[in-house]
Batch of 3 targets.
Target 1
Amino acid sequence: MQDVYLIILGLLFILAITDLVVGVSNDAINFLNSAVGSKAVSLRSILIIASLGVAVGAIFSSGLMEVARKGIFLPQEFYFEEIMVIFMAVMLTDVLLLDFFNSLGLPTSTTVSIMFELLGAAVSIALIKIFKTTNDISNLVDFINVDKASEVIFGILLAIVIAFVAGAVVQYFSRLVLSFKYERKLKYTGAIFGGVSLAAIFYFILIKGLNSLAFVSDHFVEDVHNNRIQIIIFSLIGFTILSKVLTSFFKVNILKLIVMVGTFALALAFAGNDLVNFIGVPIAAWQSYEIWSASGVAASELLMSDLAGSVPTPEIILIFAGGVMVLTIWFSDKAKAVVDTGVKLSRQNEGSERFGANYLSRTIVRYSMMFGSAVSEVIPKKVRNRIDTQFETPKAKTTGREIAPPAFDLVRASVNLVVASILISMGTNLQLPLSTTYVTFMVAMGTSLADRAWNQESAVYRVAGVLNVIGGWFVTAFVAFLGAALFAVIIYFGGLIAIAILVCFTAFVIIRNTLSHAKKSKANKLQKKYKRTDIITINEITAESSVNISQVISGIKKRYTKTVDNLGYHDLGKLKKNNKKVGELESEVDDLKGNIYYFIKSLDEDSVEASRFYIHLLNYLQEMVNSTRYITRNSFEHVNNNHKNLKFNQIRDLKKIDKKLQELFSEIKYTFDEHDFERLDDILAEKQQLLDMVSEMIEKQIKRIRTSESSPKNTKLYFGLLLESKDLISSTLNLVQLFREFYVEAKSTL
């Protein structure tokens, strides 16, 4: 029996390492968002600062993993074997849940996930115990720490509202004072702004960061709490003087300093406090095992009353956990994706939006605009004009090959960090279970709203994105509770076999998601779909257009062949999947069309005529995708409606067209991949031959109708496929013709 629990412990620690990776990947938004978005320093420097904060916070953490042992459930009501079931269910759920959010690139709260998982698993096991004995569900309160669970839910709702409002208000008045042209004003106000900001971050480190460090005594923490007013006053004075000295004599950019110190502070607090979310459960399981081993009592008879005590975590485990966290920050692509979501939702400049508008976001924006118009009418015109002047954004100075400007400026980045630090410090003082993810994200959204980053062009998409993220937070709580409860039941009744199956399933999902994410990242790099501020010359237009054409042609080539093959086999599942894939092609072309504005603005004076070429090129790509969409959608609907399959002769003719198209598409793809544009004339020479072949098949179908064809639905589908194939060929060769003319003209001007 002891060997069984040792195996479970081993699995729990393997899951803990995985949880560290997926958890840190998601929580990276807490401390990287402002620094990355503002480009205060290089990405390498940001990662070094964050790594130092994480390392200090993790290594010197007190390691008191209270929440896993007694924060949510009452351990004295559970036997050792039941406790181990709860812990295994929690870790499996947490790894799967956080990896799911990482794959979507959405931030969620590791604190909320672990708490609701503990709650779900404990409730599940408690109900099993109740149904085996009294059948009185009211006894559930004897097993669960109801007050703590209620605090978590209340803290979530409160944090979302307060963080958003506080961020918006502070940013609004900061911008009124400093404006977007803040460089000159910082000469006079920089010392005060720096003093307030650094004092707030320093107090945050004292309250939230140092509170969890092992070498800090309880007496020191109590002194800080009792003398907080004096600490705030003296730190304000001290940091104001320091800021003045640094800006006046050493010419230090005080805003960059605030961002770097704030990033370190949040990383320190994150590692010191949130470490429990990743390794707290395995540590609690290990301590439970030690208690049980020393007791000599059967696993099904030992109540875990001793687990309620305070037991520090061994230093070696904290050091190892800190190392894993640091490595994850540096090498996790999913961490970058989660940070990218927060940065894009709060960026000042325009660009492609990740989230689509929905009814709720449109309604919110519509009524907000009506409210804003009503308020502006009340404000005197002179005051309104003065306010508008402070919010005027200077035109970006793009030179050379600058790819992307900062998402927002250093003023907003500083406010993000300062407001988040103050709110988390206040929440800690009031003993509210705040989530650092919720606070930092909602502060960032509030500051972006106040900065007028959500204008008429982007508001519905940004609001939709925020609603998606907030909705995801509540989904986290719901899924964490149900998932852990379900896993606990499965493990309770299935034993070691159930654990083995669930661990294998978790490993499969993690590996699959990792490979899928890597594949998507590679595809995105190949497509080079960055904002069009770097395309400025004829040669670069030619190169970029070649990439776009090759990518779309490659997608159409696959989809056309698969549609014809799957239609021949009447394979509904594969036709449905193929139809969905064409939707991804449509999104690619739509993204390219959405960036036309940036493309035209970035052209140099000698290349402006190329904008007409690029617009027509995208139009032909759109027509090609539309034809492919018609072919895939109608093929799917035909089979989905259980109509008769196409006849052998019809499928054979479609395969002939497919074969010719595959040859054409392969030749075009090779031409644009290798930039061997001399082959374009040979490709165009085949145009009439292909069109004649399709026309011949249309005539053959007309003869069939007159003699043997008896299915109107087949005829409709077949004619539709032939005509759209003809349009696809025409659009493809028109695109090649357009590119050839542009290439010849461009070549003559070089």
Note: The first helix runs from residue 2 to 38.
Target 2
Amino acid sequence: MLRGDLVDKAVGPVLEDPARLRAVRRLGLGARADVAFDRIADLVERLVDAPVALVTVLAADRQFLPGQVGLPEALASAREMPLTHSLSRHVLEAGRMLVVEDVRTDPVMRDNPAVHDLGAIAFAGVPLTDSDGHVLGTLAVMDREPRIWTRSEVALLVELGEICSSELRLRIAREIADEARRHAESAHDQLSLLGELTETLSATMDIDEALGRLGEMVAGRLADWCVVALAEPSGRVRHVSVAHFDPAHAPATARLARLAADAPREIKALMAAVQRASGPLRRDEADPKSLRTRMSTGEIAEIAERLGFASYLAAPITAPVGRRTVGVLMLVNGAERGVFGEAEEGTATEIGRRAGLAVDNSRLYGRQRHVAEVLQHSMLPELPDIPGIELHARYLPAQVGAAVGGDWYDAFLQPDGSVMLAVGDVSGHDIEAAATMGQVRNLVRGDAYGRDDEPGPLLAQLDRALHGLSMPAAATAVLTRLRRVGDGYDLTFANAGHPPPVLLRPDGEVEVWWETPEPLLGLLPRDDRSTHRRYVRPGSTLLLYTDGLVESPAQLIDDGIARLRKVLEGNATLPTDELCARLLSTVTRRDDDIALLVIRLT
């Protein structure tokens, strides 16, 4: 069959067919040699006795040459040529084999630059097709003089063309299988990511910390980099964090987060766009240069372009109550990673939903914690102003739970001039423990006020009262009576299962007042509890505290007290508020409440 009667048509629609181009991409045959197709080209050159034999693959804008024999060196090394020089593109347009004895007489081919640049005079090309019939390329031969192609040569080309097509189909099938495997792995990875994110978001009630971790987990697994932004109900942008999978970009992402936080208009505009879209907003071809016209500062666009801004996916962070959009998760890819698909879109939507739930929980927890802290502090007394005695107290709730608990402190002046000091801990750190704590503290005050009993009998009476009034309380406590005697102080104390008092002497040495342990209050009532006595010199500082200051799951109480001793030693003149701050700074993890009472004697 001759090409002379073929009508010239625009090859664009056929060449740019999305299904055909998808098959070409799956081949992965670019501007490089392929051993299998080079062998076929060599076989064709010898069997047909043609100076040039080619296996071509036609992309949208160029022709690749994975197999070739006989091309001049520049093209032989480049393994590609522009479509202007391609004779095979006419095979693609025709969808069938073309055999031309002299292209100079062909109305369509005669103006092709290949005639002059490559000396292509005679041409024969067989279409190479995929399983759906799309022409992906050709098996072609060229001669540098007019030639009548024989029937046996044409039949040989057709047969070898079928072999080439079978190889292409096999490679496409293998790539489709690999794609299915990658999609399955991606789906598994995304499910794993969602599980890890849920655990991360529920591990802390600090929403800024949670959203920062969210971005770090998403970057690299779902996108090259991402932006997480959160707005308050008032519309104020409350949080912006940026994360990139490459740690080398950490300075740039930190700078971008600061710039975005200082330019809330862009964040609000993105949130509004997502709201209007009623779901994720996806752009497969993002132009980084367009950012310069939309950003209030050019540095934002500059950093985004440097990080890679070829495609993006913006998903709403949606609060479950009222389905309000409270923030946005923006995933961004550079050119190398490719565009986002439906799987990533679904995962991003689910991440936004779970992040919105975490935001709602955090805000609810914050309101409850604030109420609880106000309640707790309202139940703790104001310390009296006593000449010669400086009192300083601190209370810190546990970082988990309801932010209230059973830890307490107290100090009050007796009619005889002595001072009662107490620190205790009712088991638990919740509302019930706080309510019980208030009752226990009031029982201590009511029972001890106006009486000159020593601390041991007072705690024994408190024990009897807890049982007699059927109060479900188990508590530790240290109760101390302090009297001025001459130039110093007579100090008596009783300890019901509580950490020992610690004294910082004027010379900077530290005493830990260990005594034989006695049971907690509220277990089995005791008729007698011990009273211990110490003489304390002016300039000393007494420390009463609860076990949250010295205990943790990974540490014994002895280790915690050794840590306190190290902080106290040599600091007898340190102001009491600074001393408190130093003691509390040694606690790295607050699994329990802390009550701390510091008494400086002058």
Note: The CA atoms of residues 448 and 458 lie 7 Å apart.
Target 3
Amino acid sequence: MAEAVKQTKTSEFDSASFLKNLTSRPGVYRMIDDTGTVIYVGKAKNLKKRVSSYFRKTGLTAKTRVMVAQIATIETTVTHTENEALILENNLIKELMPRYNILLRDDKSYPYLLISGDKFPRLSYHRGAKRKAGRYFGPYPSAGAVRDSLNLLQKLFPVRQCEDSYYQNRSRPCLQYQIKRCTAPCVGLISEEEYKKDVEHTIMFLEGKNKQVMDDLSAEMDAASQRLDFEQAAAIRDKVIALRRVQERQYVSSDQGEFDVLAAIVKDGMAVVEVCFIRGGRNLGSKSYFPKGSGDSSPEELLSAFVPQYYLGKNVPTEILVSHEPEYRDLIQDVLQTESGHKVSLRKPQRGQGVRWMQMASTNADISLTQRLSSRSNLLQRFEMLQDALSLDELPKRIECFDISHTRGERTVASCVVFGLEGAIKADYRKFNIEGITGGDDYAAMNQALTRRFTRLQKGEGKRPDLLLIDGGKGQIKEAQEVLEELNLSDLPILGIAKGPERRPGEETLFLVGREGEVTLTADSPALHLLQQVRDEAHRFAITGHRQRRAKARKTSTLEHIEGLGPKRRQKLLQQFGGLQEVQRAGVEDLAKVDGISKSLAQKIYDVFHGDH
């Protein structure tokens, strides 16, 4: 059983009194300020010795001195072992997000490729708990990396990738069969034995056994040639050529290897950890992490904080190569082994192929950090130039942009995106489902969204922007002006950005409330580029929100609410196309071929699925 100890300050923290009674056993300590907020969480093999180090008179970093000055309370939790303390520390950091800890903010599970355990297995993207039966391959650094692999594998080995519900209700081959990306097991155009060969080759490829796959394919090609099936032989030959090209694209290749490569760099007040995923000797890609609060840490301290937060609770490879040896390496290694149930090696490579992998990871880390530092500097320059262009008294450190999206007045959604000196602040993005207005009335929709947003601001919810950007012309700006005046926020600058007659970038018309005439910015102006970036993001976010709302509403009523499309016609439509998804893909001419569906009704059906505004 762990035991908790708490020391509270009345005016100034009495460190001497607290340390006098502090245990020397292992555990976790939490430093808390006078508002009750946990500002730092740490672990210790010896609590008394570790906590005492914060109160010595010399040798403390500036960051540590600032943190110690804010301590009002220290709470400790005693654990049985140092391993247990590391796990508890990691859990508390993820839960409490203390501002003085090094924080890994991206803690989402990683995507995998899944080959299901069905009679005709499916190859698919998977994220989350591994509850489905089948073989999992990964992890991959991003969803994009998985999709690239799926696309490549579909060209090499036509294993089905369609949803089970779609696969089980087919009566004829789909388009994937026609473009030779699938062998149509859904309608029995391939035997189970032949399909199994493609599945086995897919698995071997994902395991890094490319040579064995090519040997098998070469043998099949020879056999096809012997029986004079030259068309089949040519198809197999094309697969072998494609596989060789894939191998050539690998920077480093080997016959085996399941490990991650971690390269850490700290420069100019910012830090990065590059994680490369090596599976079956193949580089599956890499991802850059910029942990919060790590700018003044050493690479060793950075990796010591990063590795437990990143790996605890996830699948851990048997080997992790690191650019710098983390503090508490042995402790971290022991905990990862205990949690994963298998041996884990955490080491800095000294020679051979491991050094080559590390050089590649370090190069990527340096490029990512340079780009991040450069983009941060360029973004500040854009904000400064925008301030000059609009003659604002202060730098607009926070811009909020509003946009409206709907389909012919249906399911209107307003978006609010936020940009600051660090770029997009996605945690502050908001969507507003617009109700109670005439369909297609963008002015009323803008009025409602702004009223809801700034009424909340007046109630103390959220932060006040320095500039309000409206995607629209004088009509939308007038609505914004009326809302802010009603809420006593008329001092907030309002800028409208309307597309030009040809809707080409660089020809936008800008209107700043309170200034006569238009604001003129050249097409190559960094300030205009910033406004375009914010406007485009608001547009994307609005369309995404609208489509999600429309899709949700149509899960049960897509066809039911189309005038003139009764139960019998709906049934014929679904039977003819094999399901709603195929109806959605069909053109007007195809829809009109169904008995009882006129050209005008077919147009209505098509517009329901494709009538984006």
Note: The two ends are 61 Å apart (CA to CA).
